[in-house]
Amino acid sequence: MREIKIEKSFTKRDHDSLRRYLNDIAGYPLLSAEEEVKLARKIQTGDLAALQRLVTSNLRFVVSVAKKYEGQGLPLADLISEGNAGLVKAAERFDESRGFKFISFAVWWIRQSMMMAIGTYKRMIRLPMNQVNDIQDLWRSEMEMEQKLERLPTDEELSEYTGIALDKLKAYQYSPGHAVSLDTGGDDEEKPGLMVFLEDTSIDAPDTVLQSQDLKYSLRELLNQLPDRQRRIIQLSFGLQGNEAMHLEDIADLFDLSKESVRKIKYQALHSLGKEKGAKRLRQYL
């Protein structure tokens, strides 16, 4: 198979080009943990062929991450390009002696590259540069803490870690997103602008998006009332961090507890949540 060159400038925005790219990277086999260790050691000696192989074997993962960030201002192809740049950085910095798989390390660099690109995208409401820098630092810090804590940090933890006042931090978290003019045309100048197509049935309606965001915010605020272990068990039980819900047995193994202990902690957490004022607000989404 022909060699795939990984560049930040990758992508024609055309669907056929993206489809060809996806077909090309599908042919690269995944690596075993032992192969990753060998390649990492070669990369540390300056072996570019080893770097190329470690990167190309994980290109499909970049695509899966990029799809989660669609609709935030950048086309899928651009997100993949940014993620590829992050993947290369991760491959150059991977330390196999720490004992975890490459992709567990690389996901942070991939997400950071995508989030930084989204963060610098043109905004409808211009923000002062110091605020833009604070928001980017906040995103970076949140991902760093998530890696260290193996869970999402609370707003209070983020505030202490970044030195950003709690009220300002919350405002940054929900700062206005990115906008595209309805007069914007397609890649072909002869194509009409977006104004011609007022309704896009492929995406959720604005009110649905707002409700979803409000639900996530309310749920996060409610869960932050729980002790760390109770909150973590609830998140794992119901798949509240983007992962599939875990069985009690798996959670018990993770916490080195008995299945019955996990069941009791889960029950206590749910009982406590039912007494919180925020629980009433969540019932409107049922």
From TrEMBL:
SUPFAM superfamilies linked: Sigma2 domain of RNA polymerase sigma factors, Sigma3 and sigma4 domains of RNA polymerase sigma factors
Record carries keyword Transcription: yes
GO biological process terms held by the UniProt record: DNA-templated transcription initiation
Keyword set includes NAD: no
Pfam families: Sigma70_r1_2 (PF00140), Sigma70_r2 (PF04542), Sigma70_r3 (PF04539), Sigma70_r4 (PF04545)
Classification via InterPro entries: RNA_pol_sigma-70_dom, RNA_pol_sigma70, RNA_pol_sigma70_r1_2, RNA_pol_sigma70_r2, RNA_pol_sigma70_r3, RNA_pol_sigma70_r4, RNA_pol_sigma_r2, RNA_pol_sigma_r3/r4-like
One Gene Ontology term of the molecular function aspect: DNA binding
Domain RNA polymerase sigma-70 per the UniProt entry, residue ranges: 78-91
Database matches in CDD domains: Sigma70_r4 (cd06171)
Protein keywords: DNA-binding, Sigma factor, Transcription, Transcription regulation
Entries under NCBIfam families matching the protein: sigma70-ECF (TIGR02937)
Name listed for the protein in its UniProt record: RNA polymerase subunit sigma
Originating organism: Pedobacter ginsengisoli
Source organism phylogeny: Bacteria, Pseudomonadati, Bacteroidota, Sphingobacteriia, Sphingobacteriales
